[in-house]
Design goal:
This protein is an alpha+beta fold and about 300 residues long. It contains 5 helices and 15 strands. Strands 5-15-6-7-12-10-11-9-8 form a 9-stranded antiparallel β-sheet. It has a 4-stranded mixed β-sheet with strand order 1-2-3-4, with helices on both faces. It is globular.
């Protein structure tokens, strides 16, 4: 039967210590990781059942580990006086479910953003700097068929003026042309923005609440946001498009600045492509086997 070989507090729960415990010699194949409350009491709020006889690569991330556990995540909402009693309450594991895809225009009740869709055929390219950017790209779909497609994103200068200006400058300079989406993580994000020439651009101010800047554009499906390192002001050119319906843990931590108003079907198709181990992203399975290439980015305006 499952046994407890590690107790992780809420404050210490992280990708690294979950990996360290998971791959330690002490963990048995049928162990349960019991997570206690942040004050170190015996309140147990989560238990993760580790599948018996399963193995993963040593650099797999916690998200991947959890996914490979058949998503057996059990929410324990009651107080238990000891971890052992919590185990008695687990019973049959209940698999988590992936939410169904949300509509192209998600609700944003707190702040009104213009998420209205535009049609590709109603747009023309322009030399003017606008709040609409078209990404023309090529990729190999899940059926090994070469495809091309376009994504149009609307930029929100009102919520992230520094981020939007930086992005517009890079688009105007053709910085992104020929670069790839190097990270494709289904039901999470697709990420790109590393220059094909290796050119490095300066970092910018991180426009999100944890960095002292109000930003109410939530990380829901279709939202575009800046990738960064641990330094809150380390974003420069890399960006990601949300594929998940929502991801609240990103809200207030990353500078969201745009939204896909055309071509979310292309994002969905890219999310289905074949991927492999991505050593640049901590070993998650998210590196495209075949390149997802940004042929060009351009400004567009709606003619109708």
């Amino acid at each position: 039967s499952p046994t407890v070989s590690a107790a992780i507090t809420k404050d210490s729960l992280s990708e690294k210590n979950l990996q360290d415990w998971f791959f330690s010699d002490e963990r048995q194949a049928n162990d349960v990781a019991v997570v206690s409350s942040s004050n170190g009491s015996s309140l147990v709020y989560l238990a993760v059942y580790i599948g018996k006889g399963e193995t993963w690569q040593n650099n797999a991330t916690s998200d991947l580990i959890k996914e490979k556990m058949d998503n057996w995540i059990i929410d324990l909402t009651k107080d238990y006086s000891a971890d052992e009693k919590a185990l008695d309450k687990i019973g049959e594991p209940t698999p988590t479910t992936v939410p169904e895809a949300s509509p192209e225009t998600p609700p944003q009740e707190a702040v009104a953003f213009d998420f209205s869709p535009v049609a590709l055929e109603d747009c023309i390219e322009t030399s003017d700097v606008t709040d609409l950017v078209k990404i023309d790209l090529t990729y190999v779909d899940q059926f090994d068929i070469s495809r091309s497609g376009s994504i149009i994103i609307r930029l929100y200068e009102s919520v992230a003026p520094i981020t939007v200006e930086n992005f517009q400058n890079l688009v105007a300079a053709k910085y992104y042309d020929g670069s790839n989406f190097h990270r494709v993580y289904k039901n999470f994000v697709i990420q790109g923005g590393i220059s094909a020439s290796g050119q490095v651009v300066p970092n910018i101010k991180g426009e999100f609440s944890a960095n002292g800047v109000e930003n109410n554009l939530l990380h829901v499906r279709g939202v575009v946001s800046m990738a960064r390192a641990s330094d809150p002001d380390s974003a420069s050119s890399q960006f990601f498009i949300m594929h998940a319906d929502s991801y609240p843990s990103l809200d207030g931590q990353y500078a969201s600045f745009g939204y896909v108003v055309c071509g979310m079907d292309v994002v969905d198709a890219i999310a289905e492509i074949e991927v492999r181990l991505n050593s640049a992203m901590g070993g998650e399975i998210s590196a495209p086997v075949y390149p997802v290439t940004i042929v060009t980015m351009s400004f567009v305006k709606v003619t109708k």
